[in-house]
Amino acid sequence: MPEVRIIAKNFMDMVASMPAMKLDKLYENGFICEAILRSLPPLAKKYVLQLLHIDVPVAAKLLEEWVLPDGFSKHRVAIDRLVQLRVFVEAADRKNEKTYKVTPTFQRSLQKLLVHGGTLPREPMPSNITVRLPTLEDLEAWALEQWECFLLQLISSSQVEKPSNISSSLMKVFQRRLLSQRDRDAPKLTESGFQFLLMNTNAQLWYIIREYISNSEERGVDAADLISFMLEISFHVIGEAYNINTLTDFQRSIIKDLADLGLVKLQQGRKESWFIPTKLATNLSVSLADSSSRKEGFVVVETNFRVYAYSTSKLHCEILRLFSRVEYQLPNLIVGAITKESLYNAFDNGITADQIISFLQQNAHPRVAERAPSVPENVTDQIRLWESDLNRVEMTESYYYDEFPSRDIFEGACDCAREWNGLLWEDSKKMHMVVKAEVHPYVRDYLRRQK
Amino acid sequence: MPSAPSKLYSDDVSLLVVTLDTNPFFWSTFSVPFSDFLSQVLAFLNSILLLSQLNQLVVIATGCNSCGYVYDSASSKNHVSPTASMPALYSNLLHNLEQFVARDQKLSKPDHDTRGIVPASLLSGSLSMSLCYIQRAFRSGSMHPQPRILCLQGSADGPEQYVAIMNAIFSAQRSTVPIDSCYIGSNNSAFLQQASYITGGIYYKPPQLDGLFQYLSTVFATDLHSRAFLRLPKSVGVDFRASCFCHKQTIDMGYVCSVCLSIFCERHDKCSTCGSVFGQAQKDVTSANSKKRKA
Amino acid sequence: MSKIPERPLNGDVEDDDEDEANDGLEAWERTYAEDRSWEDLQEDESGLLRPIDDTAIYHAQYRRRLRALASTAATARIQKGLIRYLYVVVDLSKAASERDFRPSRMAVIGRQVETFIREFFDQNPLSHVGLVTIKDGIAHCLTELGGSPESHIKALMGKLECSGDASLQNALELVLGYLNQIPSYGHREVLILYSALSTCDPGDLMETIQKCKRSKIRCSVIGLAAEMFICKHLCQETGGTYYVALDETHFKELILEHAPPPPAISEYATANLIKMGFPQRAAEGSVAICTCHEEAKIGGGYTCPRCKVRVCELPTECRICGLTLISSPHLARSYHHLFPIVPFDEVSPSSQNDPHNSLPNICFGCQQSLLTQGSKPGLSVTCPKCKQQFCLDCDIYIHESLHNCPGCESFRHSKSVIAAQ
Fold this sequence. Notes:
The structure holds 3 protein chains of 3 kinds.
Chain A: H1 9-16, H2 20-27, H3 30-39, H4 42-51, E1 58-59, H5 60-65, H6 72-84, E2 88-92, E3 98-102, H7 104-116, H8 136-155, H9 168-175, E4 179-180, E5 188-189, H10 191-198, H11 201-214, H12 223-233, E6 242-243, H13 249-261, E7 264-268, E8 273-277, H14 279-286, E9 299-301, E10 306-309, H15 314-323, E11 325-330, E12 333-337, H16 340-348, H17 353-362, H18 366-369, H19 377-390, E13 398-401, H20 407-419, E14 423-427, E15 432-436, H21 440-450
Antiparallel strand pairs in A: 1-3, 2-3, 4-5, 6-8, 7-8, 9-10, 10-12, 11-12, 13-15, 14-15
Chain B: E1 14-21, H1 24-29, H2 34-51, E2 56-62, E3 67-72, H3 88-107, H4 123-139, E4 146-153, H5 162-174, E5 179-183, H6 190-199, E6 203-204, H7 212-220, E7 242-243, E8 250-251, E9 253-257, E10 263-264, H8 282-294
Parallel strand pairs in B: 1-2, 1-4, 4-5, 5-6
Antiparallel strand pairs in B: 2-3, 7-8, 9-10
Chain C: H1 11-21, H2 27-33, E1 41-43, E2 49-51, H3 55-75, E3 84-91, H4 105-123, E4 128-135, E5 138-146, H5 149-158, H6 168-179, E6 187-194, H7 205-214, E7 217-223, H8 229-238, E8 242-244, H9 248-256, E9 273-277, E10 280-281, E11 287-290, E12 295-298, E13 302-303, E14 310-311, E15 316-317, E16 324-325, H10 328-332, H11 335-338, E17 345-347, E18 380-382, E19 389-390, H12 392-402, H13 406-409, H14 412-420
Parallel strand pairs in C: 3-4, 3-6, 6-7, 7-8, 9-16
Antiparallel strand pairs in C: 1-2, 4-5, 10-13, 11-12, 13-14, 15-16, 17-18, 18-19
Helix pairs in contact in C: 3-12, 4-5, 4-9, 6-7
């Protein structure tokens, strides 16, 4: 399953793979520098801050001296990441020793940001305009609702009461890897589709954004522009309204899509229209960092295989349904049971035991999250056992030989197959044998030669 | 006394509570003007917020007559005047700081400063407030950022705050909150040395104030997660001297009441704290002690 | 007094009995049988399950406790026996292998003694603890009086094996011999953790008890089996306490009751002034020859303020000049006993509605809003000295852990008032 590990980190790889010219152009924007900085591992962040005001190249040896022996692998990861993203430029000094220096554009932008602060290209709505803005709670609820609605539409277009305005072509792009449609059947979730559902919101959001960006070239949009706008949006203040007229045409076309995803809420004033960033938007840059999973869980798993999920979300219920039998539902509580049948269903859909367990662990209710393990051992063991049950029979393509003319030839053929490490089974009495498919040509050649 | 055990931190999200010494008596006699110092500190504070969106920053001013919160990045009242030329942090903090300094000045009694002694800043107050704030963060659930305290202190220790500061240090140790201290005054601060040593924080006295930002960002911007991997300044010794209860002097040798452990710089007949009357002479004690050692 | 309970040898059968005896509960039900967490939930009008808001009740309980404490402190001037010499006697006779505590009495004792020793040194920084074990009818000194929790714990964990009978008299005689040597200002105490239901002594135990009484040794016993007359008599005579633990949590409660310093009783120990030095800690990485191991050491040691000689650990006695060396934070740990902060006054929500009451409605300590949802003022407290307002959470934190009033500490004016008192 090479495509499975779709997480936000890939986005930074996307940035890293951009040509140096484009990166330099991106780094002229202070916000992008900030977002990049925040996405770095903790040690790398520190190095950037430490070298920020140093204009001469610093020897790699000197950097290494700051690190304790324990942290050396972390140090390497940090430096590699910095060089990859061209935040550090590597060079050699006169003594041919490796040196590092912060990329001048990045350095300038970040220095400016530190001293003068970041200024958005637009200001929030002045307070003298009386437009009723939603409260932060309402906004968050709206954003989550919008997002879940989008997700539901993504996985089963039929179930949605109020479909969003995302064009069906764009929806197709998102669904490309998550759904598979055979002939005229209803589209079915693929393996990665199920795994997508088990990811946390930020990772899902990044997956969608990544698809959105990688598809941009087809729509005739510059990926760098798109990335910089996305990151810029994430630095707006939640709940403040910003005038849409401050956006370029290109940005205005994007903001509509973002509204459908729940990233911004559009509000029509008397004369002008405004957009209000939601928590989802500001989370974009947060979730780039490792600390993205700071969210309280809601699932309690008991040793009797009962699952209690304190949630009002329809989506959570759907996710639980993927691998458990939902028994009761109260307004904010879902009670289910993990059974052999429900798990076999999940395995059939390509969900692995580890994914289910890590979902249960990551979303453990704070009450049980402190316990170690947060999911009872007997449950995790049983889930794994049931999975390995399915893997009891292993398929190997093979060839079956019989009716050997003589015992010598039979034994010779056995030896030949053994030499190639492909003899699966032999019955010397009746002179039958089975060999692996890839060894078949050699055995066939051997037999031909015997004739 | 062992210093606090090192805890494992899974990520670098921090809650930094900074106590900022605004003692006018110190700054008026110090070689560097407060404004220069402040501009470097502000850049440092801004860089903390820059490192992660989830980082939280609280600044408490340590005045000479009072203490007060001057900045809280989590507060919703932060949008006073979002001017385009200055970050919100600067405008808010400076605005509140000005108000605080003016209020602090008004509180000072005219007869206080005539003696020519520089009164100490109320570090015990700002430490206590920081700890209360951090407890609030602990209460907010299991997803709270990792808290630490940074004391930016210039004025000398106030021996009369000894007990209060020690209480604060122990409370910080119990809740594993490291106290970092950056001391810019002329001598070392015994209080802050002890605070950092006991709580597992870093005590550092920058050799010069020109590149203060560099020192701050190199040493004190290090989050608790990264501290496990980096070489940070080692302690240059800790001054474990105590203050006596009778004259509030800092002493390295003294008399301790066996009942309540009060410290005195000279012999008394009766303990002024617990009222015990001291009986036997000192000699008996030492002889008993040595007997025990032989046993 | 010589009844040694003979239990059936087949421990396995007993185990099964245990499981069935537990009211027929399933294993997963038993994990909740104690904390009854389902009672914390209630259903609101829209059918949502919510945790019950019990902060107000919790706070009321806490305040009652605080007031009770404050009233006892006000009647008597606080004199606590802060310098304690305590022997913990652990009964490792055959009775300690009983499995009525899980996994066994001995394991439970080991676990709880560890927590107790840590807590004890946290609360009594200048005190000393020693460990004595009783086994095969004789008492054995496991560790001598000392101030390092780690060495005690390590010694005990290595010796957790039981056999033979218990002997109270042998244990008391041994401890008596040690405790008679300590300085007169120290409080002598013995804490016996007794599993056996009998004592097998070489002489007259009553006489030993009288000796303990004369030596002013306070003996306390925590039993793990049933109440015994001799233990009760011992404790009554010497001024200690006697309890029998019902289960592990109760045992923990009982043992931790011995951690805070007992009130000082002048007849038990005479007050005295002790000359002490507060050494400085040397820089990390400095090299010096220490007097305790007589070898050159790299790293932080301490320097005696009188003769400038280097020692490795505190508290100790200077080998050269005999000065008692301690680190001052050790002393300071107990100062909050001496200067307790007064209980805060409760502010009723109604009084805040006064127009001329200009309280800021945020907690002075943590800046939390004191308004409840719907912006009505909630419960809060004020410090009677500095008149600052605090939220209930800060109130508890300030009195239980911080022991400073942030309000009083951050105003010079109020400080000078306190100093003048």
